[in-house]
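Email to the structure team, subject: Putative dimethyl sulfoxide reductase, anchor subunit model.

Hi all, the expression group asked for a predicted structure before they design truncation constructs. Nothing fancy, just the tokens so they can compare against earlier work. One-line instruction: predict Putative dimethyl sulfoxide reductase, anchor subunit, return tokens.
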Amino acid sequence: MGNGWHEWPLVIFTVLGQCVVGALIVSGIGWFAANNDADRQRIVRGMFFLCC
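Reply from the structure team: attached below.
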């Protein structure tokens, strides 16, 4: 009992990292689908804050 508690930070970090990568992929697809520059600029701003 109690073995494995040290792995939870790694699990949480991995899951959060995968969520960010997935959001970047979906945002990139949305960027390609956007028609005007205002929408693309808004998407790029959101992608920037995902990475930082």
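The chain is about 80% helix and 0% strand. Residues 20-52 form one domain. Ping us if the truncation boundaries need rechecking.
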